[in-house]
Amino acid sequence: MTTVLVLNSGSSSVKYDLLEPDSGTSLVSGVIERVTDYRQALTAVFAALPSLDGLLAVGHRVVHGGNKLYRPTLIDDQTIADIEELSPLAPLHNPPAVLGIKEARKVLPGLPHVAVFDTAFFHDLPPAAAEYAIDRDVADTWNIRRYGFHGTSHRYVSEQAADFLDAPWESLNQIVLHLGNGASASAIAGGRPIDTSMGMTPMEGLVMGTRSGDIDPGVITYLWRTAKMSVEDIETMLNRRSGVFGLGGEIDFRALHKRIETGDEAAQLAYDVYIHRLRKYIGAYLALLGNTDVITFTAGVGENDAAVRRDALSGLTSLGIEIDEQLNDAPERVARRISAERSPVTVLVIPTDEELAIARACVDVLG
Ligand code: ADP
């Protein structure tokens, strides 16, 4: 049996998944929380693995690959230096990934380590979608563009959607809504992403668990100049105390719904702002694609929250989108259709599996 170990070293946790890339079976997975020492965390990961027999490679999820790193990459010292160099673009994400990679290479020096980048799928976004309308020289000097994130998931889910519909990936126009704690939308025309909601950092776009998503940059300069907040405080506020949590006091949608049921107005507002933004992006992507074949919900909220799916797409029959309430409410955990038979646009729920996609990318790299 051949296995791949997938590691996702974040700012406060290390997630691991030992899986069998052919069958997609996960043998063991887990998360080490409250990480301060990556050596200790990695030691705990390896202690949790049943066996390293048959381990082919270690796949590392890396959030930001910048302009240069977009193919799954066999890691050497230069790759690590390149990822480190990108840290200013992803200060919350790339430094822990580098620490995780360094420690994992020390523990398993004989094995190939592969980096798979969250930005990769969106590397070739059309310039009209990738560029911010700012001073060209500033943008070029500082590598400011829209990179997009969750790319591994958007790609995997859109491929699964094509499989589900028994249609070639290249033949479909798709909208993918990855709604987890982080949330992003993408428009994919014939297997090629033409827009995505996250930008230079994973802060742009949809309302998220704790991130604001789109915000007028004037708010930031105002808070800095007039409210005298430091850049760090503003960044922390926008990343950790905003979004659904900032408005409604809850990160988890299950808790948010409970509060809404008790008549909690803050929770209701959080939900309404979340849905409003989501509908704006869906509308925008319907217009960009011109003709949409399939809309797919994925990740924690997208896979589990029937109310979010219903409210995101209600009243769009005139645009060819009609949900079947019964199918939408069925609490199944497999890929499934939730649109009415007569709905011209097919709506799907597909569980994402970024770990499996990373494991398979490792196998591809190693030939
Ligand atoms: P991450 O972005 O951290 O990978 P996930 O994709 O796992 O996040 O999504 C986690 C979120 O999914 C939770 O915070 C919660 O809001 C939501 N979620 C999970 N299960 C359910 C459920 N049964 N109903 C509604 N929301 C859920």
Automatic annotation (TrEMBL):
An annotated GO cellular component of this protein is: cytoplasm
Classify the main location: cytoplasm
Catalytic activity as recorded in UniProt: acetate + ATP = acetyl phosphate + ADP
Q: Which PROSITE patterns match?
A: ACETATE_KINASE_1 (PS01075), ACETATE_KINASE_2 (PS01076)
Entry's EC annotation? 2.7.2.1
Q: Does the keyword RNA-binding apply?
A: no
Cofactor note text: Mg(2+). Can also accept Mn(2+).
Q: Which locations, inside or outside the cell, does it occupy?
A: Cytoplasm
Residues reported in the UniProt entry to bind ATP: 15, 178-182, 252-254, 300-304
Give GO terms: molecular function aspect only: acetate kinase activity; ATP binding; magnesium ion binding
Note the site residues: Transition state stabilizer. 150, 211
What cofactor does this protein call for? Mg(2+); Mn(2+)
Q: Where is the active site?
A: 118
In its UniProt record, which GO terms are filed under biological process? Answer: acetate metabolic process; acetyl-CoA biosynthetic process
How it assembles, according to the record, is: Homodimer.
NCBIfam families recorded: ackA
Family per UniProt? Belongs to the acetokinase family.
What protein name does the entry list? Acetate kinase
Q: Which organism is it from?
A: Mycolicibacterium frederiksbergense
